[in-house]
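=== RUN LOG ===
request id: a7f3
mode: sequence -> structure
chains: 1
length: 123
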Amino acid sequence: MILVVEDDYLIALDIEAGLLAEGFSLAGLATSADEAINLALSTKPALALMDIRLLGKRDGIEAALELYRDLGIRCIFTTAHSDRDVKLRAEAARPLGWVQKPYSIATLVAAIRNAFQELEEES
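=== RESULT ===
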């Protein structure tokens, strides 16, 4: 199961439709760090797609760090903000990849498949 964390609800709906069409199951859609954490606690997704800018006070890096530290959930960052400082801040969450916005569903699906393969190889 995949958790989609994206502050732009229309983009989140596009991601949801594209991933469902590709046969993935979704844990849900979250627009804030707190919503993402709560959804992850109740659904235990295998992976999160994480935007960096989110609604609320905390950003996607903070959410990703908490998901990884507390639940062992890794993420793929889907963002327009992937400069060196951002990537350094996010390193502690051990991201499984970065997908630069704007992106196609095909690009996202390829990143997800690579992430699942990496998770499988690590276990």
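=== NOTES ===
The radius of gyration is 13 Å.
The chain has one domain: 2-122.
=== END ===
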